[in-house]
Amino acid sequence: MKRKWLLAIGLALVLTMVSLCGCTQGATFEGAISSQQEGIWVTGKGEVAAIPDIITLRLGVEAQAASVAEAQTQAAEAMNKVMAALTSNGVAKKDIQTQYFSIQQVTKWDREKEQEVVVGYRVTNMVTAKIRDIDKGGVIIDAVAEAGGNLIRINSIGFSIDDPSRYYEEAREKAMADANAKAKQLAKLAGVTLGKPTYISEGIQGPPPIYPIKMAEAPAPAPPTPISPGEMEIILTVQLTYTIK
After folding, report:
1. Helix intervals (H) in 89-218
2. Which of 158, 202, 207 lies closest to 45 in space, CA to CA?
3. 103 within domain boundaries
4. 21-38, pLDDT tens digit by residue?
5. Is residue 213, in this structure, part of any structural domain at all?
6. Where residue 180 sits, what CATH number does that domain have?
7. Which residue from 9, 20, 77, 84 lies 20 to 30 Å from 230 (Cα-Cα)?
């Protein structure tokens, strides 16, 4: 009988402790949710127009022949000429980087055999080249097109800024001012007094787009290629949480 009483008391104590723990965890969870919902949350945006000072070209050569060796030879010779055209026009070797190289079979469908047959091999060698003298962009495009001949491939052109830090600083100031103005207006509309920021997060827009360039396989004498960098939009956003006094 005594043993049954001890078991009953022990079970009651265990149930009481579990209940207390559950209440504590629930209170903590509710407190966390409540703390996240307190205050005034705003997002500020800053935009700055900037003129690009770097051109990034994605270009290379593509050769096709009956054998791998022949295709490689043609591609190597053409690429050497393209590299020479880049460096002789002021593009530094450190600004030229191989991005893609492949050797692939070229096949066609044989109706008699009812299967794919190899008819040759294609060698592709692509690089990116940074042109820091943006005024020479068109001249360099023309130079590599002439150097690569029928094997040249120019896939895309992109514009960027070498040191965008000063533009980000200006955009950041505008974003913070925008967020602060929104928070003050919300506090006024709600009839409360705005406190200090307790949370700040920054976001930056992704890299600028790359624009494709279409060129004929056989370049013909023509006026210099016109290149217009235009303007870039530097966009920065901030998220802030203000306390309510």
Report:
1. 137-148, 165-190
2. 202
3. yes
4. 444 444 443 443 444 568
5. no
6. 3.30.110.170
7. 84
Instruction: Mark which of 160, 186, 221 sits at the end of a domain.
Output: 160
191 in a structural domain = yes
Instruction: Provide the pairing of β-strand 232-244 with 40-50.
Output: antiparallel
pLDDT band for position 156 (50/70/90)?
Answer: very high
Handedness of CA 20, 26, 29, 34 (dihedral sign): negative
Structure tokens at 26: 């629930």
pTM of the model: 0.67
- How many CB atoms neighbour CB 16 within 10 A? 10
20, two tokens: 């207390």
The residue from 106, 125, 160 where one domain ends is: 160
**Domain assignment present for 148:** yes
**Residues β-bridged to residue 197:** 242
Q: What are 77's two structure tokens?
A: 């010779």
**Residue 224: how many CB atoms within 10 A of its CB?**
10
**Do 93 and 127 meet the contact criterion of CB atoms below 8 Å apart?**
no
Q: Are the beta carbons of 53 and 162 closer than 8 angstroms?
A: yes
Q: What is the pLDDT of residues 78-132, one digit of tens each?
A: 999 999 999 999 999 999 999 999 999 999 888 887 788 888 999 999 999 999 9
Residues spanned by the domain of 173: 40-49+165-206+237-244
- Reported residue count of the chain is 245
